[in-house]
Amino acid sequence: MALTLSGVTMRYADFTALSDVSLQVTEGEFVCLVGASGSGKSTLLSLIAGLTRPTAGTVTLDGRPVTGPGPERGLVFQSGAVYPFRTVERNVAFGLELLPLTKAERDRRVDWYLAETGLTALRRHLPKQLSGGQRQRVAIARALACEPSVLLLDEPFGALDVQTKEDMQVFLRRVWRDTGTTVVMVTHDVEEAVFLGQRVVVLACNPGRIAADLPVPLPEDRPLTVKRLPGFLSLRATVEDQVRAFHRAAA
């Protein structure tokens, strides 16, 4: 499903968080949103998720207006927000319990997404028995088990150490390629955005607006060593310069 934002503006009293944002995300695409604090990245994701309504403009999914949350959009936050008293498999099954599925189909999906996210051996563990990276895998598996058209990620690896973060980046790209799900991800980490995305959208501040929409001309098969390549380093520097320039301009 294509995701389209047309002239989206979001105001809170006298403060304009987003102004006239237009963005098209095609089916199966991986788009990363970056920008300084206050550029409206999370606000934009909240509008796509249907948690809030824009002051002006429209958000549509496959031509249908987004008017609230729905199973066609899965959302994962930085904290993961897994249910502490549910096992891994029952966390993954949570959204499925709300859908009109047979038990056999629910069990099939739980088994498949546990395997896809490397959690099968941990299926009967509670979240307190898991590492931070494992809890984020549970949150992503739970969101994907409902088989949404769009997966929305709000800085999902921001609280992880560097090694775990890189492991999760490789994991996320593999899951994205295996499932074909459209992904829109907010991150403050420019290197992460360039590694993960097919496009990097830079948001400017005060008000939040699109300052640049940059394609990532890197191979789809991206081992971590791609981060050492001149093309990667050059694009990372370009994005960092854009973020700094539009942050200074708004200061």
TrEMBL record:
<protein>
    <submittedName>
        <fullName>ABC transporter ATP-binding protein</fullName>
    </submittedName>
</protein>
<dbReference type="InterPro" id="IPR003439">
    <property type="entry name" value="ABC_transporter-like_ATP-bd"/>
</dbReference>
<dbReference type="InterPro" id="IPR003593">
    <property type="entry name" value="AAA+_ATPase"/>
</dbReference>
<dbReference type="GO" id="GO:0005524">
    <property type="term" value="F:ATP binding"/>
</dbReference>
<dbReference type="GO" id="GO:0016887">
    <property type="term" value="F:ATP hydrolysis activity"/>
</dbReference>
<dbReference type="InterPro" id="IPR027417">
    <property type="entry name" value="P-loop_NTPase"/>
</dbReference>
<keyword id="KW-0547">Nucleotide-binding</keyword>
<dbReference type="InterPro" id="IPR017871">
    <property type="entry name" value="ABC_transporter-like_CS"/>
</dbReference>
<feature type="domain" description="ABC transporter">
    <location>
        <begin position="3"/>
        <end position="230"/>
    </location>
</feature>
<keyword id="KW-0813">Transport</keyword>
<keyword id="KW-0067">ATP-binding</keyword>
<dbReference type="InterPro" id="IPR050166">
    <property type="entry name" value="ABC_transporter_ATP-bind"/>
</dbReference>
<dbReference type="Pfam" id="PF00005">
    <property type="entry name" value="ABC_tran"/>
</dbReference>
